[in-house]
Amino acid sequence: MSSSFDIQRFGKMLRHDVRRCSPSYGVVGPMMISLVLFVPLITLVHGVTGTLAVDASYRLSMMTMITLFDAASLPLQLYANIDKKKRNSGIYYAMLPASKLEKYLSIAVLSLVVVPVAVMAVNVALDTLLVAVHAPYYSQYLWQSGLVGWLSLPVLVNCLLVFVGATLGFIFANGIKSSGWRNVVSFLLWMWLVGGMIPLVFLDDIPYAVWVVVAVNALIAVLLATISWNKMNKMAY
Amino acid sequence: MIEIRNLDFSYKKTPVFSNINLSFPEGSIYGLLGENGVGKTTLLKLICGLQRPTVGNCTVDGMTSHDRLPEMLQHIFFLPDEVTLPDNATPQRYVNELAPFYPTFSQGTFLHLMQEFEVEPDRKFREMSFGQQKKSLIAASLSLGTDYILLDEPTNGLDIPSKSQFRSILSKIADEGKTIIISTHQVKDVENLIDPIVILSHNAVLLDASVQRITEKLYFEYGGAQRDDALYSEMLPGGYMNVVANTTGEESQINIEALFNAVLRNKERINALFA
Asked: Do B84 and A89 touch (CB under 8 A)?
């Protein structure tokens, strides 16, 4: 059994973290609200006013965005106390018998894979239900449309890069001791998460510019992944 | 076995320990005593790898503590003085989350200890008093079955009956060969429980000795007049209690508070006596 990575220990760590994503830890509140309210709200507004067709590709794009924002913010909520001295809240996590790599990967897999897939699945199920019940407000089921819609390949790649980078960046932000600096870094990451996804919508017709933006965001994502792992590896209490 | 060798530690420019050496063999309840701010909690954190020594090292079963290897963490549990608990969680849920990591966890022991402490395992932490929360956490810590259990100020917040229950439970656990290190400044709470006794002072270990060795070297005299040669004297109902060097080899009953004060006030004489 390796000290730095063991698949069984990693599984235990991931299960532990998944259990902690429950309402008793105050983690799922924003997610549940956006999950439950988003699609009906859009449907209601656009359906009643008739200002915009609530077509499948549009709904899917918005669901993807909501899912990415929710999942990216998970480390800030679930692991907010990971390195805090106040009331010894970081000690619990530090003393769990798993390696630093297993703990880091557990946060990453939960935020980057488990939660987005779960949130997306609930979104799709809810959308399907609403289409079945309120068919006049919708043009079609999600799978009856060109699903990617206005999200072209570079836009999708860019969104994923910004999502991965910001999520890992939030892990790093949790490990910053000074609350002032932690807030500054978190704010900048939020700005990047929001702003980093927007330019490509306007640059979609300029192929070179599109890929330059994707490359810059890829660099930032790699940088954030590296510093967040280094921070996790060197945490002291 | 926990071993600390030539260890220095400081918080930035404030030195806490300078070249200390200690060892904690298995199967005893160690009392880590000292005034506020001498580094009792820091020493516990160094032992379980939450702090990195500036110089020297600390090992648990041969593994360097600050590496925090999973194999080491599986054998050691640290219960800090204060713990942040999720509001809606219950003690049962708390141990359910920890149990998969500790193959030696016993649900039976947990329920038994909760029953002894008279706390319901399915009651929410937020509905409990501080003392009940503390008892739940102690029960959880002891039911994990780790070889080393580090308790920081465990009797804080416990009422008088709970303190007695705590002492009786810990005695049973120690009989099972576990090593327990209790850091406290409430020395009366752990009297007749801890053996050996470690007394810390700023930067140094003032005393590290078993109760037997202490009674070989020191004599606790109750009810007489105040003695000039006493390391420490205290007026009690019925006369003075004197702590003096044991020159006759006669055994006496330790009074931990008096021992603590005697050690703090006579560092050099104590060093010479126990050398």
From this structure: yes
Q: Which of A151-155, B28-32, B246-250 has the lowest mean pLDDT?
A: A151-155
Chain B interface test: which of A22, A95, A104, A234 (most B C-beta within 10 Å): A95
Domain spans in chain A, listed from the N-terminal domain onward: 7-233
Nearest to B100 among A15, A25, A236 (CB): A15
The per-residue b/e assignment along A221-237, b for 16 or more CB within 10 angstroms, e otherwise, is beebbeebbebbeebeb
The DSSP bridge partners found for residue B148 are B76, B179
What ipTM score was computed for the predicted complex, to two decimals? 0.87
Instruction: Indicate the domain borders of chain B.
Output: 2-208, 210-274
At the topology level, CATH places domain B2-208 in: Rossmann fold (3.40.50)
Backbone angles phi, psi at A52, to 5 degrees: -150, 140
Q: Count other Cβ atoms within 10 Å, centred on residue A122.
A: 16
| Cβ <8 Å between A24 and B82 | no
- Residue A20: closest C-alpha in chain B: B97
Chain segment B129-151, per-residue pLDDT in tens: 989 999 999 999 999 999 999 99
Rounded CA separation A93/A95 (Å): 5
In chain A the first and final C-alpha atoms are separated, in Å, by 27
Radius of gyration, alpha carbons of chain A = 19
| Cβ distance of A88 and B70 shorter than 8 Å | no
CB contact residues (below 8 A), chain A span 16-55, against chain B: 16, 19-20, 23-26
C-alpha gyration radius of chain B: 20
